[in-house]
Amino acid sequence: MNLWNKKRHVVARRSEATTKRRRGAVATQSSSHGWGLLQVTALATTCLLISGCNLPAASTPTADLFATLQASTPSNFTPPPATESIATPQFNFATPTFTALPQNAIPSPSPADQLTGKIVFTCQVDKVQSSDQICIINADGSGFRQLTSDNVRHFYPSLSPDGQSVLYSAFREKNVYEIYEMSLTTGNTNRLTDRLGVSNAPEVSPNGETIVFMRGNPNTQQNQIWVMDRNGENPANVPQTLGWDPTWSPDGKTILFASDRDGGVQLFTVSLKVSAIKRITSLPSIRGRSDWSPDGTFIVTYSGEPWNREVYVMSADGSNARQLTPSGGNSQGPSISPDGQWVVFTAYFDHYGDDHGCEIYLIRTNGTDLRRLTNNSYCDYQPRWGP
Fold first, then answer.
1. Which of 25, 54, 76, 345 is the most exposed place for a label (fewest CB within 10 A)?
2. With left for phi above 0 and alpha for psi between -120 and 50, is residue 289 left, alpha or beta?
3. What's 112's DSSP letter?
């Protein structure tokens, strides 16, 4: 979620916290423990969001990776207008039928569901954001383990396309967040960025060769979408992409991201081949964190005011939007299963109003079969599903 907007989220959430404790939507995490919007640690991010502390300018990138990605573009290419106009999609905001369940009554997944793959997420094991960790669990609820333990903030995890490693962002020093990749087999970790600034939300392309991420620049008070080689070399910004929370299309040709370039926050796509940017949504109060279905036909995102957020599913062009999650759970940060049949997200169905009550839930893409995946005394958020 947008780092610069995160401050406003934190304030909103803390204000609500006194009445019904909740974390407001931050630049990169949603209400409460920032699902798409990250609440920055005591040093780096908070300072960044509030006043844009003196984050040093990013080190000069080496070769322009973006130029390589759009090699077919003529040298005299003139970028298209900042935003293409599109017809406003027809939205269906009808709330799904939902009968509230007693506290702790939402069932957990069972092996019979044949849920496959792994889900990586941010786990606030010490109930302090400055030491958030990265955890992982099998989609059927087995195999939980904490992957990081050093006393700094980690967040925005994602799995590599082959499911063999986890990428995430972590605090390094004042005003600097780096991107790391950890092998799930050996536990070895490699730092991929070097003082570019506040780098987060990394995701590996479907072919495993390129990483997209967000880089926050306090000098300009802007967030931009960047790409780099899988090993961290050749970092470069994608032209005209002021925004955050990027994610790859299944074919690796397009990036979906959130931006407030038109005023309110909406979702946009950018084609890497020709730098064409298109707005695809007109939902109210979109936050950021979104995902594509494996076949590229639909996307999920979340929208709504603090403590009243809901997950939405829509066609890949932004049309036919409908609310997926039952109302009343403050649902956010969705990700789609590898088979395209389920959505994982964060919500408060069992502990609404509890600042540390966010858990990971599952729901089918048709809006049925709501399940709770985690059940901890601390907040679990920012889930990302992978193989």
1. 76
2. beta
3. G
Tens-digit pLDDT profile for residues 88-145: 333 333 333 333 444 444 555 544 467 999 999 999 998 888 889 999 999 999 999 9
Its domain, for residue 12, covers: 3-57+83-386
| For helices 3-20 and 44-51, angle between their N-to-C axes, nearest 10 degrees | 100
CATH number for the domain harbouring residue 314: 2.120.10.30
Structurally, how many domains does the chain consist of? 1
Q: Does residue 135 sit within a domain?
A: yes
In degrees to the nearest 10, what's the CA dihedral of 3, 150, 180, 294?
A: -80
Any domain includes 63? no
Q: Quote the CA–CA distance of 341 and 365 in Å, as a whole number.
A: 6
Dump pLDDT digits (tens) for 345-362.
999 999 888 888 999 999
Collapsing DSSP states into helix, strand and coil, what is residue 220?
coil
Cβ atoms of residues 59 and 196 within 8 Å: yes
Residues 6 or more apart whose CB falls under 8 angstroms from that of 12 comprise: 24, 25, 31, 306
pTM here?
0.74
